[in-house]
Write a structure and sequence with these properties.
alpha/beta; Isoleucyl-tRNA Synthetase, domain 2; Isoleucyl-tRNA Synthetase, Domain 1; 4 domains; four-stranded parallel beta sheet; binds ligand ANZ
Length: about 800
């Protein structure tokens, strides 16, 4: 018998798939389309660790399965290669980012190739390719033309280590998400995209999406719509008015003072007339050094300064009330001013106690009536901020704007796109608030497209999230140089049917939805949402339970795993580790278990394909007469067996077809694998299987372990490839009556059930229990330690499975 040489088999099939082009998606097909997409990676210098491919394996299983079902599948891959991570890597290693990215992509591709993915490489894209970023720039121009891109001069988050401005989405609390440095506020001229204009639609359309609820909830919270009212308080003896935002207009009678945020424009004006100008201004200065998080912490002692001599008038009762500046009110939310109701609001209460302000108990009013009566209006306000879009860094798409003294900011004519990122020697950030591009005079100095006079190019670049906000569209039509995506191709392929990734609930997934809706409005796309279904990817931790990182020296490289155990064992293992959305630690002993499973498949496959040269010592003895039986149309009943046992294998086979099909569709890969393991056990126990049944088993296995499945299939002298052979269908009539639901007890309590054949072995029963996600948290850790100090397993077939700690 040929021994199982994974290296030889896997190389053979990877080569064949590459040459055949059989994974190319066709733009003109009468078949139903399926667009399956991974969040594309940025090609980091460290390469892939075993955590990265988990999602890629899942989409590969899904797309191979769909292709076998006769769908026209688009499963592409590309590179998100602009932005801080790539640039910081380049700076650290003293290598130009363009070169670093090229090298890293090459490395990633070779790592991916060894795992046997079915990508359509003819559609590969790279966000740093001018032919790609031409269209990123084009989208910016359309936003600008529709008034959704503004040049503003406001305080923004500034990372002193990365030396660039950042958007709120780039922060982790009050630190730069990239490097962990606490951000500061800096006022810089910068481009801002009006994402807030889309906030309501982004909220409303969440309901239409087949996404995990926790991601939708994270988006709702990030958008953070509050319904309330804007009410104006006149300032005594002047024309000034303090406009407050309140979600509780019904408490207006209880407002005993007002508070302005330190950033509020009225503070400086009113300070001029106040008795304590210096005190006010020094408070404002001190507040500007604090972060929003520090300022709004509940437990923080409230601080503030009264604007002495200034009074506001409560429009409900015309009472004069004091005006404060205090940093617990934020400049960037609502109107940056509040009416304080100490009797109903905890923060106001704490402040009133400290400053000895009246706390007035009141009867509540009807909100709408009172708002009307005092001339206010009902409004919505949002936590989400417009998208700060300028980065003072080299490695990004140049913003296609030209500044002219006479004509102001002028868009680069579309015919002149792309605005190429110039090659430079020095791309280090300057730290001055200007991009390194500002030092390249020959690039900066240009002529104004409107008046032809001397003008300067915008030198800021776009943030790293720009290119990834629309890349999925480009896969539909990657080579088009006249439009971003052709209407026909977009109509055929959109939307992305299944999108897989983790960790981007509020960054990429917010930005991409915003751009998509904008592109819908200008007629570039036909769907209102980009990603119909989203599957959240749970991460893989290192064997020690920590994050895999060079820093901890616990990184496992997939190249080594594939070399030792083979790509098929690796793929099956990652799908078997646990529910797809769970975070699970890597376990070398468990991958040895999947490797054994694959070896057992090989052994049976060898015997069936008639290559057995000697007794294998296994219980399986499939012989030539099986093939003969198949030839005679006797498929489905193993020769040499009683009708009963043959029947029960057939039943299990049909149950497996059903379960594997449904589980792949539902992204429950772990239970699909365990079902195949149960079937394999039964095949071994049975001692024989018909060739037809075996072929069905290989078809089911193929999405998970395509190399071995293809090889064994070919050895059965099939003319067509396993991919072309189709996906098996189950026969409803053959499913029935053969399994029993039995209770699973853990330490005396029933925690769930499993479906088992009446003659299932204890091993199969335990396997089935571990495959049930609901039981996962109650079951003892694997590998199962039976006996003293471990657990006792009691199994009564058809009745009960019980685990007791001993
Ligand atoms: C009076 C009042 C009475 C309030 C009451 C609350 C309870 P959300 O739900 O988060 O939108 N507020 C308004 N603008 C603010 C700002 N810039 N900085 C800090 N606080 C601000 O919160 C809205 C409430 O937070 C508003 O309603 C306002 O206080 C405060 F019993 O007005 B309220």
């Amino acid at each position: 018998m040929d021994t199982y040489d994974h290296d030889k088999i896997e190389k053979k099939w990877q080569k064949r798939w590459g040459e055949s082009g059989s994974f190319r998606a066709s733009d003109e097909s009468s078949k139903e389309k399926i667009f399956v997409l991974d969040m594309f990676p940025y090609p980091s210098g460290e390469g892939l660790h075993v955590g990265h491919p988990k999602g890629y394996i899942a989409t590969d299983v899904y797309s191979r399965h769909m292709r076998m079902r006769g769908k026209n599948v688009l499963h592409p891959m590309g590179w998100d290669a602009f932005g801080l991570p790539a640039e910081n890597f380049a700076l650290k290693n003293k290598i130009h980012p363009r070169i670093a990215v090229e090298k890293n992509i090459e490395n990633f591709k070779s790592q991916l190739a060894h795992i046997g993915f079915d990508y359509d490489w003819s559609r590969e894209i790279n966000t740093t390719d001018p032919a790609y970023y031409k269209w990123t720039q084009w989208i910016f121009l359309q936003l600008y033309k529709k008034g959704l891109a503004d040049l503003r001069n406001e305080p923004i988050n500034w990372c002193p280590s990365c030396m660039t401005g950042l958007a709120n989405e780039d922060l982790d609390g009050n630190a730069c998400e990239r490097c962990g440095t606490i951000v500061e506020k800096r006022t810089l001229p910068q481009w801002v995209l009006k994402i807030t204009a889309y906030a309501d639609r982004m909220l409303a359309d969440l309901d239409s999406l087949n996404w995990p609820e926790h991601i939708k909830e994270a988006q709702r919270n990030w958008i953070g719509r509050s319904e309330g009212a804007e009410i104006e308080f006149a300032v005594s003896g002047s024309d000034e008015r303090i406009k407050v935002f309140t979600t509780r207009p019904d408490t207006l009678f209880g407002a005993t003072y007002t508070v302005l945020a330190p950033e509020h424009e009225l503070v400086k004006k009113l300070a001029e007339r106040a008795e304590n100008k210096e005190e006010i201004l020094s408070y404002v200065k001190a507040a500007s050094a604090k972060t929003e998080i520090e300022r709004t912490k509940d437990e923080k002692e409230k601080t503030g300064v009264e604007l002495r001599g200034i009074k506001a008038i409560n429009p409900a009762n015309n009472e004069e009330i004091p005006v404060f500046v205090a940093d617990y009110v934020l400049g960037g939310y609502g109107t940056g001013a509040i009416m304080a109701v100490p009797a109903h609001d905890e923060r106001d209460f704490a402040f009133a106690k400290k400053f000895n302000l009246p706390i007035k108990e009141i009867e509540l009013e009807n909100s709408e009536e009172i708002v009307k009566k005092v001339g206010g209006k009902m409004v919505s306000t949002y936590k989400i901020k417009d998208w700060v879009f300028s980065r003072q860094r080299y490695w990004g798409e140049p913003i296609p704007i030209i500044h002219c003294e006479k004509d102001g900011a002028v868009p680069v004519p579309e015919s002149q796109l792309p605005v190429m990122l110039p090659e430079v020697e020095h791309y280090e950030p300057s730290g001055t608030g200007e991009s390194p591009l500002a030092t390249i005079a020959e690039w900066v100095n240009t002529t104004c497209p409107t008046c032809g006079g001397p003008a300067k190019r915008e030198t800021n670049t776009m943030p790293q999230w720009a290119g990834s906000s629309w890349y999925y569209l480009r896969f539909m039509d990657p080579k088009n140089d006249t439009t971003l995506v052709s209407k026909e191709k977009e109509k055929y392929w959109a939307p992305v049917d299944v999108y897989v990734g983790g960790d981007h609930a509020v960054r990429h997934l917010i930005y991409a939805r915003f751009w998509h809706k904008f592109l819908y409005d200008i007629g570039s796309v036909s769907t209102i949402e980009p990603f119909a279904r989203l599957e959240f990817l749970g991460f893989i931790l290192a064997e020690d339970g920590r994050k895999m990182s060079k820093r901890y020296g616990n990184v496992i490289n997939p190249d080594d795993v594939v070399k030792t155990y083979g790509a098929d064992s690796f793929r099956v293992y990652e799908m078997f580790m646990g529910p797809f959305e769970n975070t699970v630690a890597w376990s070398t002993s468990s991958i040895i278990g999947t490797r054994r499973f694959i070896e057992r498949v090989w052994k049976i496959g060898m015997e069936i394909s008639g290559n057995a040269s000697a007794s294998t010592g296994s219980a399986t003895s499939v012989t030539e007469d099986l093939k003969a039986a198949e030839a005679e149309g006797d498929v489905g009943r193993g020769a040499g067996r009683g009708a009963d046992t043959a029947g029960s294998l057939e039943t299990l086979l049909h149950q497996t077809i059903k379960k594997v099909s449904e589980d792949i569709e539902a992204f429950k890969f772990n239970t699909a694998v365990s079902q195949m393991m149960v079937l394999l056990n039964a095949i071994e126990k049975e001692g024989s299987i018909s060739a037809g049944q075996w072929k069905t088993f290989l078809q089911l296995l193929n999405p998970f372990a395509p190399h071995i499945a293809s090889e064994l299939w070919e050895r059965m002298e099939n003319v067509e490839t396993i991919e072309a052979s189709g996906w098996p269908a189950f026969d409803e009539a053959k499913l029935a009556g053969s399994t029993k639901t039995i209770a699973v007890q853990i330490n005396g309590k029933v925690r769930g059930t499993v479906e088992l054949a009446p003659n299932a072995s204890q091993e199969e029963a335990v396997e089935a229990a571990y495959a049930n996600p609901e039981l996962g948290k109650w079951l003892p850790p694997r590998p199962l330690q039976e006996g003293e100090g471990g657990v006792k397993v009691i199994y009564v077939p058809g009745r009960i499975l019980s685990f007791v700690a001993v």
